[in-house]
């Protein structure tokens, strides 16, 4: 959209954008001079209506799930996008979320555009997007903090910063961190939902800066606190930052710091925080998760600013979801071919620890190399398998039987 205003297309394509109609209906206004057009953000109801409309138009490849309920009783909704959305298959599972800080509304705007794009391109026969949806289990959570979103506040209705309320390195120093790890229904719901899905990777969109913020947040890489699998962490961070036309890292608003490399930074080297979703995801949920800051302004006021922000992130999201397929995946069963849940899967010197889900499925993100993967669960004899991970985003299939 340009300042000159929207043009209504004369011919509506078959796989029309759901969002276009909603934007036409609700999101652009002119002042009385007719020269300035400001952007009106989607309300929470409109975001939820968009998800409903997306599902109604694409019932075979989408599913709406409720992650949880906010302090004030509002639903935290997720839209699952996959070829079999009702049943997580042996596919990499990717969680993309926004609105954990309620005043960072541009993040939700970018995410609903991305959903609209994925579904429209799927229906338009875009082979890349069709393959992506058929081979990935994508979960979109457009607003983690609905009470904050409605009141345009960073915090939830208890005045807590949800991105300080996760359990890893949680600190009780300030009331805005909550009264205990996961004291808040929103962060607790995200943790339970994530544990049930066993996500491979994640992105949480924020605004207030432009940077791909990588684990860990709780300490500084420059002071030797960083993930044991930092090469994987940095690789996937750069996948996001370097993808697209224009690439994310070429955004002129990118953070200026001596620690920045091509649009990525170690979280702690930017500034240390405790109890972040990203650190909990990595260290406690086996999910390689990133805090991606997408715009300097939390409230860009012009439609073209929203669209520009989206343009710097759309192809990064696609590249990241695609690359989440690297590594090893399969099913762990017992001697009677029954799936085993909760099998711990590790590599030597690794710190991204994953577990099989209720169907015995796992997906271990790994860069191309040879690894010894160890599968263990108390009552079974531990097994170690040597695997050569190929240089492909479809990974390698390895089923394991534990006796
Ligand atoms: Zn934020």
How would you explain this protein's 3D organization?
The protein has 403 residues and is α/β, with parallel strands linked by helices. It folds into 2 domains: 18-323, 3-Layer(aba) Sandwich (Aminopeptidase); 328-401, Sandwich (Immunoglobulin-like). Helices cover 29% and strands 21% of the residues. Residues 1-14 and 24-34 have low confidence and may be disordered. Bound molecules: zinc ion (ZN). Zinc ion binds next to loops.
Strands of the biggest beta sheet: in what spatial order?
3-4-6-5-7-10-8-9
Ligand catalogue: zinc ion
Silhouette: globular
Mean pLDDT comes to 92
Question: Could you say what the CATH topology of the largest domain is called?
Answer: Aminopeptidase
Going by CATH, the homologous superfamily of the largest domain would be: Zn peptidases
Q: What's the total helix number?
A: 10
Output the radius of gyration: 21 Å
Strand portion: 15-25%
CATH class of the largest domain: Alpha Beta
Report helical residue fraction.
25-40%
List keywords for this structure.
4-stranded mixed sheet, single chain, globular, 403 residues, Aminopeptidase, 2 domains, Immunoglobulin-like, binds zinc ion, disordered N terminus, alpha/beta
Task: Furnish the topology, listing elements before pairings.
Layout: H1 18-26, E1 28-30, E2 37-39, H2 44-57, E3 62-69, E4 75-81, E5 93-97, H3 105-123, H4 127-135, E6 137-141, H5 146-151, H6 185-197, E7 201-206, E8 209-214, H7 230-242, E9 264-266, H8 267-270, H9 277-285, E10 288-295, H10 303-323, E11 328-333, E12 344-346, E13 354-355, E14 361-364, E15 370-376, E16 383-388, E17 396-397, E18 400-401
Parallel strand pairs: 5-6, 5-7, 7-10, 8-9, 11-17, 11-18
Antiparallel strand pairs: 1-2, 3-4, 4-6, 8-10, 11-14, 12-13, 12-15, 15-16
Helix pairs in contact: 2-3, 3-4, 3-10, 7-10
The structure holds zinc ion.
Residues 101, 104, 206, 208 line the site of zinc ion.
